[in-house]
Amino acid sequence: MAANTIQVGQAVRRKAKLWDRVYPYISITLPFLVIALFTIYPVLYAVRISFYQYILTKPKSHPFIGLKNYIEVINSYYFRTSLVNTALYTVAAVIGVTIFGLVVSLLLNSKAKTAAALRVIILLPWAIPAVVAGLMWKWILNSDFGIFNGILYALGLIDQYLPFLANPTLAKVSLVLADIWNEGPLAAIFFLAGLQLIPNELYEAARIDGGGAWRIFRYITLPLLRPILLIVVVYETLTAILVFDLIYVLTGGGPGDSTSMISWFAYAEIFRNLNLGHGVALAIVIALITLVLILLYLRVIRSEEMVG
């Protein structure tokens, strides 16, 4: 009887050990299959499509054309124009969002009586979906009844309403302003979190040594905010490169092609020109650009850690 009990116990332990060895692989396999089904397979299928001629008006003709889609997309006038527009917009938006977020975070971190209320209010623009924000700014900047034109006219700064969304330069500026208003609060929260981690003793010591506000900001605040600054810059860079909803609602890529970003070009190739091969090839090019930026980001972070 005792021998049987021992054998049963050993069998149970063997099963338990086997399950302990198998369970980690089972727990990883199921999520991996889901990811493969909804992420990896679509990506591989998209890469495959980019090597074929996929024009939706010719549903039964999909010949293999190799790199022709990539060559035609990269050599097109619209690619060069959209790339320049995207670069200019990204630089302006990233600088604007970073400065806005930094200034607002310094205000929120101060001992002003309104700081507590502003910490709640500042999140509202970021919480509003980009499509809704685009519609709001489209009404605000309207050349006939826009409130922004009304304010400028009432202050005597203009003698007639300006066509913000019909002028190529003003349309670009309007798009950047809408992005700063929509993305700036998130940057402000990031910077505020970093500011609250800086010990007050450093500021008190600097004031005792006669440091002014600018010198304290330059030699204490800014260096200690560098990791947060890198995160904000990279995140906003990727957001600006992939922007689509604001363009779709606010300018529609116009006037002309003045606000046609690279993401808008991909949309137009697929849904307007009905050339799925071109659109997918362009999407892969965008993905490669963002991948390069991520690698540069990781390299900067690694160098910062080595210096630290």
Give a description of the structure.
- With 308 residues, the protein is mainly α.
- It has one domain (68-307): Orthogonal Bundle (MetI-like fold).
- Helices cover 75% and strands 0% of the residues.
- It has 14 helices and no strands.
- The longest helix is centred in the N-terminal third of the chain and has 48 residues, at 2-49.
- The radius of gyration is 27 Å and the shape is globular.
- The model has no long low-confidence stretch (mean pLDDT 83).
Gist of the model:
It is built from 14 helices and no strands. It has helices at residues 2-49, 68-75, 77-108, 115-121, 123-127, 130-140, 147-154, 168-195, 200-208, 213-224, 226-241, 245-250, 262-271, 276-307.
**Distance between the amino and carboxyl termini:** 67 Å
Strand segment count: 0
Gross geometry: globular
Number of helix segments?
Answer: 14
Mean pLDDT: 83
Query: And the CATH topology?
Result: MetI-like fold
Query: CATH superfamily, called what?
Result: MetI-like
Poorly predicted runs: none
Helix content: over 70%
Radius of gyration: 27 Å
H/E element sequence: HHHHHHHHHHHHHH
Please give the structural blueprint:
Elements: H1 2-49, H2 68-75, H3 77-108, H4 115-121, H5 123-127, H6 130-140, H7 147-154, H8 168-195, H9 200-208, H10 213-224, H11 226-241, H12 245-250, H13 262-271, H14 276-307
Helix pairs in contact: 2-14, 3-8, 3-11, 3-13, 8-11, 11-14, 13-14
Q: What descriptors fit this protein?
A:
308 residues, MetI-like fold, 14 helices, mainly alpha
